[in-house]
Design brief:
- With about 675 residues, the chain is an alpha+beta fold.
- It is about 25% helix and about 30% strand.
- Strands 9, 10, 11, 12, 13, 14, 15, 20, 21 and 23 form a ten-stranded mixed β-sheet that branches.
- Helix 4 (about 90-95) runs antiparallel to helix 5 (about 105-115) and helix 11 (about 390-400) runs antiparallel to helix 12.
- The chain is globular, with a radius of gyration of 27 Å.
Length: about 675
């Protein structure tokens, strides 16, 4: 039996496994890199072993270091988590060779699954529907086609090719990107991504757990999952589960995993792959089935049998969203920084199946967590379980909208807009959902009046904080004078550029007038900004309460509470209308060095991976200059226009921060 378990992963994955271990009486061992010294998964473990370094390749993906850590900590079993190690046959074999229990599929099965072409061949021989596979461009009979890497996961290297003229270059580009072989298969438009979670033991039993709808994706990465699928009826569910069982047995699979299918509008489906991990979206399956899948996974790893005769019944509906640190201002690239506050309201459960409908949060972060560039940008998974799909969608959208998420930008607003979209509510989903509905990318806080009120609340809270800290006369209203005086003003750098807010208070401390205007960035060079008149179009506002962390405004008879969390010169404002981060601009800013007009700067922190040009080289518009590696992905930096590379101050392997100079390109 498993006595002490090392989890070869970090963040919410490690915390999720630890939660079940505590429940069933298994001691836990965490591993951690330099930057994860005080991470929540380290604090919660019974034992923790340091892996010197920061990059995944030097720490969490180091087979020898992980085996040594398990042996030093006295662990007799290893759980691989859900990342690359969970699919690495060499790591699985090393654990077994070291005499420890491996909580995953057999190494031989992982070797087969590592080759997607061979996997599809074996599944096809077992009479499971599979799309044709082409490894030679000349074999492709028609278009469009999808290019996929022959190994690897996570959506890296997948691209659509719509004509023969671009196929050869697309294949060559994909091979360079993934560093290996690729294959083509027909592209199925308007298709859904459906997966069947399974549990298989070494005694021949295979149990499916219904299906999960994973069609809402961006860059081939899932962002919303749910079960059951609104497109799957009982007959289709039975067919999908039967095909999943056949595929599992054809591949000799043992453990927890998911068989992934493509489903078209006519109800036809095709096998995509068998993912040999617990999957990040296992929480929705736990909610509707009532089973702890981690407990079952560990039971099978100990040699036990699946404890149920067949698929468990589905209870209600569950929806999961992946909250990720991503910057919409930079094409949704991963974002880094300090998470100053992360608070989700009304959480009913953490890391375990819910006993009754409610909200569950699986998070690897907490207030003060540092979101670095070396790991996946996912912060947490929020799950809602309710009797119906409509109730679950409404519940999770409301909780997300009221979440306080300060310090790093995220995809939270996108998730809320998708969940509230009429097409999502109607179940009209496929993998092109976001392409068809670009309106979901708009921020929640988009109305002019809502932005104005947020700026006003930030200014009032800032004034209250300064009055509370004043050494004398701290009880006087902010801005009070014996004689009438000018308005108080503050300038904030908001999501759409600088804005100035001004307000006047009367002798009783009531708001006498206020205005907000957009500011030309060139005006910020002036020592003082001009006073704008009180705008007639602004609604009457009464300040009910103005503290440093909460402002209550009465707007035309409707009272609204606004939370303000100030960190340094940034005010994080949360209201029923949405959330916004406002950085207060100093009235007397220090001069900053100006970058050359043709400078290319880093859009995110990362490590320079490849440099494809040299100083003096002429480049075309759109030509790839270099790549940055951040959060397990490679991000390209292209030439914005034709020109000559005049300066290249970085080298491969060098770590850069956001805004750091990468190259100077003199345009022609």
């Amino acid at each position: 039996m498993i006595r002490r378990l090392l989890v070869a992963d970090r963040g919410e994955v490690a915390r999720r496994v630890f939660a079940t271990c505590r429940l069933v009486g298994i001691e836990t061992v965490a591993v951690y890199s330099d930057v994860d010294t005080d991470a929540p998964h380290v604090i919660e473990a019974d034992y923790a072993v340091h892996l010197p370094g920061n990059t995944p390749s030097a720490t969490y993906l180091q087979t020898e270091a992980l085996i040594a850590a398990a042996q030093r900590a006295g662990a007799n079993a290893v759980h691989p988590g859900i990342g690359k190690l969970a699919e690495d046959p060499d790591f699985a074999a090393a654990v077994v060779d070291a005499g420890m229990i491996w909580a995953g599929p057999p190494p031989a099965t992982l070797r087969t699954l590592a080759d997607k072409i061979e996997t599809k061949k074996l599944v096809a021989e077992a009479q499971v529907p599979v799309l044709p596979t082409f490894t030679d461009p000349d074999q492709v009979p028609g278009f469009p086609v999808l290019i996929k890497p022959a190994s690897g996961t996570g959506g890296l290297g997948i691209r659509v090719v719509r004509d023969a003229g671009t196929l050869a270059e697309a294949i060559a580009s994909t091979r360079r990107e993934v560093g290996g072989e690729v294959f083509c298969e027909p592209y199925v438009g308007n298709a859904r991504h459906i997966e069947v979670p399974i549990l298989a033991d070494a005694h021949g039993s295979v149990v499916p757990f219904g299906e999960r709808e994973c069609s809402v994706q961006r860059r081939y990465q899932k962002i919303i999952e749910e079960t059951p699928s609104p497109a799957v009826d009982p007959a289709l569910r039975e067919d999908l589960c039967r095909a999943a069982i056949i595929a599992v047995r054809a591949l000799g699979y043992v453990g927890a995993g998911a068989v992934e299918f493509l489903l078209d509008a006519q109800g036809d489906f095709w096998f995509l792959e068998l993912t040999p991990t617990l999957q990040a979206d296992h929480a929705v399956t736990e909610c509707v089935s009532g089973y702890d899948l981690v407990r079952l996974q560990l039971l099978v790893a100990e040699g036990g049998s699946v404890p149920m005769p067949g698929p468990p019944p589905i209870r209600g509906h569950a929806i999961e969203v992946r909250i990720c640190a991503e910057d919409p201002a930079y094409a949704w690239l991963p974002a880094a920084g300090t998470l100053h506050r992360f608070a989700v309201p009304d959480i009913a459960g953490w890391f375990r199946p819910l006993p009754q409908p409610g909200l569950r949060l699986d998070a690897g972060v907490a207030d003060g967590s540092v979101i670095g560039m070396h790991h996946d940008p996912m912060l947490a998974k929020l799950v809602a379980w309710a009797p119906s799909r409509q109730e679950a969608a409404r519940m999770i959208a409301s909780a997300l909208a009221r979440t306080h998420l300060h310090g790093v930008v995220s995809n939270r607003d996108l998730l809320v807009r998708v969940l509230r979209h009429h097409a999502f509510r109607a179940g009209d989903l496929d993998t092109g959902f976001l392409d068809r509905h670009p309106e979901v990318f708009a921020p929640l806080l988009s109305s002019v009046d809502a932005v104005r009120l947020s700026c006003l609340a930030a200014a009032l809270a800032g004034a209250a904080a300064r009055r509370a800290a004043a050494p004398v006369l701290g009880s006087l209203p902010s801005g009070w004078r014996n004689v009438p005086s000018g308005s108080q003003t503050a300038v904030y750098d908001g999501p759409t550029g600088p804005v100035e807010v001004g307000y006047r208070m009367n002798r009783r401390g009531d708001l006498a007038g206020w205005w907000v205007r957009a500011v030309d960035p060139e005006e910020l060079d002036l020592a003082g900004l001009g006073q704008a008149p009180v705008a007639d179009e602004h609604p009457a506002v009464v300040v009910v309460q103005a503290d440093s962390d909460r402002v209550v405004l009465n707007v035309q008879g409707i009272r609204m509470g606004v939370h303000v969390h100030r960190v340094g010169d940034v005010s994080y404002v949360d209201s029923p209308e949405g959330s916004v981060a406002l950085r207060e601009i100093s009235r007397f800013p220090l001069p900053a060095p100006e970058a050359a007009e043709s400078s290319l700067i880093a859009p995110l922190p990362g490590a320079v991976r490849r440099i494809l040009v040299v100083p003096g080289q002429r480049v075309r518009a759109g030509e790839l200059l270099l790549t940055l590696e951040a959060m397990k992905l490679e991000h390209p930096v292209h030439a914005p226009s034709a020109g000559v590379v005049s300066s290249l101050p970085v080298q491969p392997g060098v770590e850069v921060d956001t805004g750091e100079l990468l190259a100077v390109l003199d345009p022609e």
